[in-house]
User: Fold these one by one.
Assistant:
Number 1:
Amino acid sequence: MLAHELGKTGARVILVEAGPRLTPRDFHQDIGKTLASYFWEGGTRAARGNVFFPTLQVRALGGGTVFNSAICMRPLASSLQRWQDDHGLTDLTEEALAPHFDAVEELLGIREASDDIMGRRNDLFREACENLGWSWERIRRFEEGCRGSGECITGCRHQAKNSVDRRGIREMVEAGGRVYTSVHVDELIMDQGKVRGILGATVNPATWGRKHPVRITARCTIVAAGAIGTPVILRRSGMTRNAVGDNVVFHPSCFIMGTFDELVQPWNGATQGIHSTEHLERGIKLESLWATTSTFSRGLPRQPKQFKRYLKKWPHMSVFDGWVSGEASRGRVRHIPGTNRPDITFDLGEADLRRLQEANALLCEMFDAVGSKEVVTGIHGLPEVMSPREAADEIRKGRFSAVDLPTASNHVMGGAAMGSDPDRGAVTDSWGKVWDADDLYVCDTGLFPSSPGVNPQLTAMALAHRLGQELPRRY
Ligand SMILES: Cc1cc2nc3c(=O)[nH]c(=O)nc-3n(C[C@H](O)[C@H](O)[C@H](O)COP(=O)(O)OP(=O)(O)OC[C@H]3O[C@@H](n4cnc5c(N)ncnc54)[C@H](O)[C@@H]3O)c2cc1C
Ligand code: SF4
């Protein structure tokens, strides 16, 4: 988004990306192959701490937007208020950001999922909300011509998703900007407190093996390697204050699978077409979800006959997911010494554990509200299959520890947090200008000092758009 804005001004823009550029020909519905080819660490990236915590990040031109569900939400007013009050980000008000959200939403064609592509899984989610008297919304996504094929996580073969490689980067290249893919950035070129570009190497897109050294010089350098990648680059370049890579925030998530007498065919319908914001202010978001049978099969009963029985039931099952705000938990990114690989730690805090517990219970209540007979929760200490009502009660009553509730998160934020005071943990100012070096900016979800309260990508894009309008005034 930033490259797009800068490209419009006539600036000479060079975008460097470690992963390859992908086209619909590169997408297939095999999740294992997709993760191995286009995700960091082949899809096995995980944080260590009081819980095993997998986290997926995309390694391709366009980043997460290429494989994500395209959900776009503006941040909660209460979250922005906290950024202002607790972090001195007084210029990041709803009013000041509104034109940037408007511009991004227009460029990416963000709109509500339509009823004709919902499929039964999304409809069941909506009916559950209605039966429980909860609010529900059609999800706003960047798409044009979505067929409801439910395969966003393996890439949109129908060219319907307006990921930023297709909207934004393309126009920047048409305006004369350059893109170098398969170049891994290792560190920044430092010159007496100023940044003068990047050092890295070309990588083989199939094997990830390093080939030729790369050196690119620039008047202004912007690091946008994501909340995991950016702290690694900054720290390897000598910016080793604790704040760099500290305060990493995740949205810990969960999912519940339920069976129905009727045919659901959960793979039909928009990957995530309906969500509920009913519980958002208490830090819980609920969504309909699809992401290949093998992704969810880890939750199925483990005894072989049972496993087979539930695999056969897939056409009659549905999946709903939930995630929590992560306010009580803490993550941290460092790099493994002598390498450019991240070392991620994450401890799930007590209040988030209880929120996660409640999210699981709420999802079970939803299945109960639409006549599901059985749910599979994957929660340690509970029977593998239960009635949804019984499961909701048992989950609420239980005293679970962090390892009992299966969780993961693909929403990573913080690590290069904005703030007015570098002595109080801020890595950048409210524009993303790094306090510790000149001519250096950060532009990704790493900037968030805390959760925006919603799915993160639209907020990052609005901040990028804002910086894209400011930088030409400075250079
Ligand atoms: C499966 C999935 C579904 C999701 N669904 C949603 C959703 O529906 N809505 C939502 O808001 N969020 C969603 N997210 C999260 C969202 O995709 C991310 O929050 C968002 O993409 C983060 O943007 P970013 O620019 O910070 O980082 P990224 O999108 O991760 O971009 C960083 C880029 O930098 C590159 N890079 C990293 N290190 C280096 C290096 N050393 N050298 C060169 N290049 C490097 C990476 O390859 C990547 O392309 C989802 C994520 C996943 C994985
Ligand atoms: S649901 Fe299918 S058609 Fe729609 S954006 Fe996702 S992959 Fe593309």
Number 2:
Amino acid sequence: MKVHGSCLCKTVQYEVEVPFVRFVYCHCSRCRKATGSAHAANGFAKPEHFRWIQGESAVKRYDVPEAKRFGLQFCSHCGSKVPHLTRDGAGIVIPAGSLDDDPGMRPQRAIYWGSRAEWFTDSSDLPRHDAMPE
Ligand SMILES: [Zn+2]
Ligand SMILES: [Zn+2]
């Protein structure tokens, strides 16, 4: 099954074959910086199962110089994270928040749990609102 994804401004659009090889929440400090959030939600796919539909020329890449593996790509118009090829070329990392369709699977594990933010709180422990509360 193919699912689609896009950035916030819709310039960058892609499709990817699911299920993912793996699907994780990553709490490492680099993912926290890169997402501005408590953790990344990343699906991993084989490169041959991924295709840009449009906007590839707007995609910018950043590889952390001192890191062995860490890199990311983002839309140069809206700043949203978009998929990137791993530095060894073995896989495509899909930021799951960029998906427009249900990938039909759920995250399987939380990695770098020991690096989680001090303030991390599971959302099941919080009051829930379907929209912005009054
Ligand atoms: Zn964009
Ligand atoms: Zn990470």
